[in-house]
Amino acid sequence: MVKSKNTKNGSNKQTLQEKIVGRTTNIVHLTHNDLDAAGSDAICRMTFGNEILTLFSSVGKFTWFTAQVSGCNGKGDTLIISDLGYQNGIEDQIRKAHAAGWVIQWYDHHKWTDAEKQKVTPFVQTLIVDTTKCATGVVASVLAKDNQSAREVASVVCDYDLWKHQDPRSAKLGIVTSKHENLKLVRDKLTEGIIIDDEISRIFEKIEHDKNKCMKKSIRAAKIFRGKYTIAVMPAYGYPSETSAEARKQLGTDIELLVFDNGKFSLRSVPEISHLIAKQFGGGGHPNASGGSFNYTWKEKWMMILFRKVSQADSFITAAQNL
């Protein structure tokens, strides 16, 4: 077991595994770190109570988080995984978690192949993949199908996550949860059936000003590549979904690639090929929205910071145009 770390003030900080071992609940929820994850966790809390242990994970750290859980005695407790899709080799950690005594339920809405499902199925109690819903919708349809508040939460979250944009409340929640420090706040309100209140509105207004500046900065630096698809490649300064939508409106693009200075990228596309492109760069996601990483070297990172040069753009363009 990993020992507690000493902080600067001399106090001990619990490691993740210590939190898992010391849990006072029989439900651990491992989920993503966006609005859909907050919604999924809210549904879980409506169903099982606020005592559950929630682990918010980026896509890149999914395997690491699963390994932390699999290294702890499950004691027959339930591990719920939501809004995180299959990754190469993840079945090894799922198998270990199963062997450690965890009962695993997996609810997702990303695209899976039949072969991927077959790799995981022997080690899970439940695997439900439904690409017609957001993850919150999938969780709600199973755990809280008769709960009116849960259905409303799922409807609002799916409106944002599936790019429907028919409910103005969803855009506000999407912007607010783009700042990860607001995830638990939004989650707690959704758990109570609160979609938007004065506190959320104040946070939204503050972020909205920053968002507009970041969007303009990205779009000004965009480079357009024309071929089978019209592709915009631009540096990212935050708010990838909103920046992509605005760039598409202004530039008439089919595909928008936004790259952060560490090489991580967000990809949006009109044709349903986003996930196929991202997979070629170690990422994944949905047909119209995905992400991954170019794993920038320090030189590539500084070229981005100093000159807004998006390295590996040529490889990306070739991969996209050849689909």
Helical proportion, percent range: 40-55%
| Tally of individual domains | 2
**What overall geometry do the principal axes of the alpha carbons give?**
globular
Indicate the proportion of strand residues.
15-25%
Radius of gyration: 20 Å
- What's the total helix number? 14
Order of helices and strands: EEHEHEHEHEHEHHHHHEEHEEHEEHH
What is the assembly state of the chains in this entry? single chain
The main β sheet shows up as: 6 strands, mixed
Report the structural category: alpha/beta
Q: Residue ranges: pLDDT <50 for 5 or more in a row?
A: none
**Which CATH architecture of the largest domain?**
3-Layer(aba) Sandwich
> End-to-end span in angstroms?
46 Å
Q: What fold name stands as the CATH topology of the largest domain?
A: Rossmann fold
Number of strands: 13
Question: What does the average pLDDT come to?
Answer: 94
Any idea of the CATH class of the largest domain? Alpha Beta
> What spatial order of strands do you see in the largest sheet?
8-9-10-11-13-12
List the helices and strands and how they pair.
Blueprint: E1 5-6, E2 12-13, H1 16-21, E3 27-31, H2 35-48, E4 53-56, H3 62-70, E5 78-82, H4 90-99, E6 103-108, H5 114-120, E7 126-129, H6 135-143, H7 148-161, H8 168-176, H9 183-191, H10 198-220, E8 223-225, E9 231-235, H11 240-251, E10 255-259, E11 264-269, H12 274-279, E12 284-285, E13 289-293, H13 298-307, H14 313-321
Parallel strand pairs: 3-4, 3-5, 5-6, 6-7, 9-10
Antiparallel strand pairs: 1-2, 8-9, 10-11, 11-13, 12-13
